[in-house]
Design goal:
Order of helices and strands: EEHHHHHHHHHHHHHHHHH
Structural class: mainly alpha
Strand content: under 5%
Number of helices: 17
Shape: globular
Low-confidence stretches: 1-10, 424-441
Mean pLDDT: 82
Largest sheet: 2 strands, antiparallel
Number of strands: 2
Strand order of the largest sheet: 1-2
Radius of gyration: 21 Å
Distance between the termini: 18 Å
């Protein structure tokens, strides 16, 4: 018999939990590699297709519109038809819409076409958001794992960082050696490969989909229960209300840093520099994922980590907005990314410990919807700010917007939720565990 393995933060993984973690990390690795091929060059790709700064960030905003429109419906699919089915649908949808992006770049398509396909890209990602995390948490509990979620989620973020490092650097280098369209074709190929991997390895355990002969009635029931356990649950509600400011700023800053750093570097065609920016964010994610369980042990409350992260992140963006030295900007970028990455697993664990299994994917999707809704407004506003006043000024504006999240995080802290002080999954409602591990993947 293999003894349990002690992970970071003192948490133990039994054999079944290790299987679940391996599948989760495999899916995270493949999906992030696929997505990150274009992350370092996406804004440059849109500008090369003939779009203005306003149109490029408006296209990104339509992507987030797609996420807002489809987050809850796809969350209901994940809760009603299974998290595996949702993941498989996501790989196919994202592969098709990415290929359409490549075609539109070749024909210099008008803006309305970019808007439509960007919405489809958003649809593809909504099949993933909530579903994979919900699958992981329920499967871990089914396996008998009782450790803190920060450890496993932190490892997932570290793998995500490694994948992003590889994908973003490769995408930038390949684009410079060939053209800006090739990384998009590579994303399509990897997504198709991930469909095959998920089909073979990902199975719903610890959760039974509740299929209904009345889909509209089932959708209303799941959505109602999700609102009850989400927006009507004060500590969860306030975290969700903070999301539009933090997530909306995060999306804009990541993509704005590409042309901003190229301007500082002095070579508008140095695509590998844009890839380097994404790679630094990826490396910071690795470090942040490792720091998350350690940061959790430094504070008695999870909200302390979230509040400190929002405050420091906003201040860094304000300083970044006044920076004109390339290497200083890279250092500030790395610090901003580390702070945000260390807080992310803590936030995920905090929210997951306050919602029940049956509505987990839908509530998590609704949480993602709140973040995306901020991106719908913030991206074009800051993109227009970049057109009028330059990228440095738009980054300083982003810092002010991120700080608006602080009052909501403080309000969540005041609710005194048990999950705020929790270090294990035991505080979560509707926990299901079983010693039977034969059905695990």
């Amino acid at each position: 018999m293999v003894p349990p393995r002690t992970g970071e933060g003192g948490d133990t993984l039994n054999d079944a939990a290790r299987k679940i973690q391996r599948v989760y990390l495999t899916l995270t690795l493949g999906n992030t590699v696929a997505a990150s091929f274009i992350w370092g060059i996406n804004t440059l790709f849109l500008l090369d297709a003939g779009l203005s700064n306003l149109e490029a960030f408006a296209a990104n905003a339509f992507f987030t519109v797609g996420m807002v429109l489809f987050e809850v419906p796809t969350g209901v699919i994940a809760d009603g038809w299974g998290r595996r089915a949702s993941f498989l649908l996501g790989t196919v949808t994202l592969a098709v819409s990415t290929y359409l992006y490549f075609v539109m770049w070749q024909i210099s398509a008008p803006f309305w076409m970019w808007a439509v396909v960007s919405v489809l890209l958003g649809l593809g990602f909504t099949f993933f958001s909530g579903a994979v995390e919900a699958w992981l948490v329920d499967a871990l509990r089914f396996s008998g794992y009782e450790g803190g979620l920060e450890s496993v989620l932190g490892r997932g973020q570290m793998v995500q960082g490694v994948a992003m490092l590889v994908g973003s650097v490769a995408g930038g280098v390949i684009a410079q050696a060939t053209n800006l369209g090739v990384p998009f074709l590579l994303r399509v190929l990897v997504l198709l490969a991930m469909f095959a991997v998920a089909f073979g390895l990902m199975h719903d355990v610890g959760f039974t989909p509740e299929r209904s002969t009345h889909p509209l009635r089932a959708t209303r029931a799941v959505l109602s229960a999700s609102i009850e356990n989400g927006l009507k649950n004060p500590p969860v509600r306030y975290v969700m209300l903070a999301a539009p400011f933090s997530a909306g700023v995060g999306i804009y800053v990541f993509y704005a840093l590409q042309p901003y750093l190229l301007d500082l570097f002095g070579d508008p065609r140095a695509y590998s520099i844009a890839g380097l920016a994404a790679a630094i964010v990826a490396g910071s994610q690795i470090l942040g994922g490792w720091l998350a369980p350690h940061a959790r042990r430094l504070f008695h409350r999870r909200t302390s980590v979230l509040i400190l992260g929002a405050m420091v992140g906003g201040i860094i963006l304000l300083v970044l907005g006044f920076t004109r030295i390339f290497w200083v900007a890279l250092i500030l970028l790395a610090l901003w990314a580390v702070v945000g990455s260390a807080a992310t697993p803590v936030r995920q664990a905090y929210v997951n410990d306050m919602i029940p299994s049956k509505q987990r994917a839908t509530v998590l999707s609704f949480d993602s919807l709140m973040g995306s809704s901020g991106g719908v407004v913030i991206q074009p506003v800051l993109g227009r700010g970049a057109d009028l006043f330059g990228y440095p000024a738009s980054l300083a504006m982003a810092g002010f917007i991120e700080l608006i999240a602080l009052p909501f995080l403080l309000a969540s802290r005041k609710q005194g939720a048990a999950a705020d002080r929790a270090s294990t999954t035991e505080t979560s409602p509707d926990t299901e565990t079983s010693p039977d591990t034969e059905s695990l993947p």
